[in-house]
Amino acid sequence: MHGQKRAEYKARLLQPDTRAKLGSKAQQWNHLSEELLKQRRRLFASPPPLSDTVTTTEGAANVGDAAAAETAPSPEVLLALTEKMLSVNPDPSHLWNIRREMLVYLIQSSQPSAIDTAGDNQEGDDNNSSKPSTLDIEAELKLTAHCLQRNPKSYSAWFHRKWALVYFMNGTSNQEHWANMKSILQSELELCAQFLQLDERNFHCWNFRRFVVGLLGSCGGSDVTTTSENDGEVNNENDAPSTKSAVDNFTGSWLAWMHQIEDEDKAVWMGPQISQNACRAVGMSTSCQERNNRAANSTTAPLSKIELEKIIMNEWDFSTAKIQDNFSNGSAFHYRSKLLPLMLEFRSADDSPSSQSDAYEAISLARDEWDGIVLDAIFTEPDDQTIWFYHRFVVTWARRNIVSVGNGDGSDAEVTEEFEGLLYDMVDSIQELIDVEKEDSFQGNSQDRHESKGAKCKWAYLGMHLVLSTLLELKSNDVDDEDKTELCERAKECLHELIIIDPDRRERYQILESELI
284: how many CB neighbours lie within 10 A of its CB? Predict the structure, then answer.
């Protein structure tokens, strides 16, 4: 229904020809569903008892005729059915579950059994010669891409794409595999850019992009090391092996490869998107002992700081481009808020870093965000809450870095003065915005200063109150009562205006006023 008027859409559904076509499609869908579930039940059904199959000669013939009439179920047939149905409707999660079940079934059945004799092994090799030993990642990516073209916001299709990438990554451990995996993940980032070009607010795609970046970091640095099966030593002595298993690393979490950042309080981590239990449920770590041994005997060289910075800078530039395209892109601002603490780590001094130098860099980074993005956005769309939420984040985030300096209350004079300078610049710019909007909207009549009557200053007043209250916190220990009194009065004026513009939240503004110094 995207891009269509509801009335026209409903009217088209009521047309006789359209109803007949939809009814025919529904019948075909039901037939395919019944056939799919029937084939799956037969595939996993227990073999019939011996007494039912071996009786008289006539009975055995009858059983043979019945078996011939109904062909044996095949996993390949079920895969073909799921592909056909999902290409029409990618939303049913049970179809994706059956597809994953069949894919794992084929891969596991291709693994030779340890108890087979030499002759049985030869026969098994002949039987399994047509079965895949690894996941056909290209086929799964092609299918999910087709499904996402039909419905770009299909939860099940996005999850299956994540699962396929993780399962393929956990398959082998040679250098060629990791190089191929990095190439695939780079292609996935390009695909995300294409999808976001069509719908820049598709949070499914933004979430998938964070997942791909997590996998890209888990692939490790430029060197890949393997552990010798004989002596158990890492071939590259300069690279420490990973302490986590493959399943732990390949969940989309950024924590598994953020080894360069030691202080977890400074960074905003992005956690796993696929649970470890879900991975193990489909045999990713318990499918066969051989895969377990490969995962246990392999490791990737940790990312260097240069490689890590390259990944983060690429995502930082991507979020900048998306925000410049549309200041209302909340998904891009959210992603940027996660990257901002990581950017601080790369901008901090490498030699003898201190909390004071980090604080200066945080202020510098906050000023860059204010001058480069926030200031342009609030004058372009002053009534858009997206940019004001990001402004609140930048101010509070910088404030937390200031508090960590000195004795813990922000009393370091030089750092505090630098931050106050940024806040006063914000006050001047926001006040200029308020003056312009008041002149255009209010026209001097206090009764017209209501949000429902076109007043556009609500978010500007909230932003002004945030900055003024932050200044009051920084000056809480100052002896200059005159300056604090002026800031307090201006903050109260903001709240009084908000009560007029937004009377539905009158009590909230009154509580904020009571909290002022």
Answer: 23
Q: Distances in Å between the alpha carbon of 383 and those of 332, 440, 443, 456? A: 18, 13, 18, 5
Is beta strand 224-226 parallel, antiparallel or unpaired with respect to 298-300? antiparallel
- SS3 string, 439-479, reads HHHCCCCHHHCCHHHCCCCHHHHHHHHHHHHHHHHHCCCCC
pLDDT along the chain (517 residues), means of 10: 68 78 84 89 68 44 45 84 92 93 87 52 50 81 95 94 89 73 92 93 94 85 47 39 48 68 55 69 48 46 78 94 94 93 78 70 94 94 93 94 62 84 96 84 54 69 95 81 88 93 92 87
**For residues 300 and 218, is the Cβ–Cβ distance under 8 A?**
yes
Integer Cα distance of 355 and 351 in angstroms: 13
* Residue type present at position 42: R
Cα dihedral 270, 273, 278, 280 in deg (nearest 10): -50
Encoded tokens for 25: 């499609």
In the structure encoding, which two tokens stand for residue 105, read together? 């079934």
Specify whether the CB–CB gap between 425 and 370 falls below 8 A.
yes
User: What span, in angstroms and rounded, lies between the C-alpha atoms of 246 and 50?
Assistant: 44
- Give the whole-angstrom CA distance, residue 102 versus residue 107: 9
Candidates 252, 258, 361, 392; CA nearest to 312 is 258
Residue that has been written with the tokens 């019948």 in this structure: 27
Give the list of residues 6+ apart from residue 424 with CB closer than 8 angstroms, or none.
Answer: 471
Token code pair at residue 485: 């009194």
